[in-house]
Design goal:
With about 290 residues, the protein is α+β, with helices and mostly antiparallel strands. Helix content is about 30%, strand content about 25%. The two termini are about 25 Å apart. The relative contact order is 0.14.
Length: about 290
Amino acid sequence: MGRVAYVNGRFVRHGDAAVHIEDRGYQLADAVYEVWAVFGGRLGDAPGHFSRLKRSLAELRIAVPMSDAALTIVLRETLRRNRVVDGLVYLQVGRGVAPRDHAFPNPPVAPSVVITAKSIDLAASDLRAAAGVGVVTVPENRWGRCDIKTVGLLPNVLAKQSAREAGAYEAWFVDELGLVTEGASSNAWIVDAEGRLRTRDIQANILRGVTRLSVLGLIADSGLTVDERAFTVEEAKSAREAFVTGAGSLVLPVVRIDGAIVGDGAPGPVAKRLRELYMSDARRNAA
């Protein structure tokens, strides 16, 4: 069986899936998205993703297309039809189809809903985490509402391409003060030279990462402490450890920043422990 997508109320062959040419998500990036990690065919961090989805929709004044219960059914059915056991499921909700105009359609139109799913090799992910990855830094050039998970990701695309061309896994955005904001598709963390866990607070212009929130909970439960405070690139390079979190990366140790070795050049004990705790918790609580 080939891949299957859900598009506006219908399950269709992935290769035949399409949206209207005047879909506002396609023409104007007038849409939001969420990505769930999938463990054993179930949704990881499900409540956090549903909550962030509704917040993003509210911020853009896009109607909620269906209840959490109904959306859960559709997400699970998409996973079933694609035979995804461990992987990712992607949801995009846009304002809908209307003649092209920057202002909202009046009267409003029905939101567009697209869902796709794919399998990932968790064994390969574990090998990547065991080796650690590199990141590069790029200037922060995104808009002032990165807290909304919109599909307007061109700066992130260019940042990821910079990382790819440098042989790195991720790119970290750096603001005009020289402080790391976040990754192109992840949140950034360090264990600084004094041994303190640090990550940027969500009052800054960053995404409110769902995996980040789960890891914060695990840190608190483990008796560790975290300082939600920005760090410079130089602090990151001189840190004991660095890592990123996200639905795609989970908890992933960083061992190089702009070619500079972090710590002893191998994944550190804090990042490794948090990955173990996160994987165990995510599998246990997947919905």
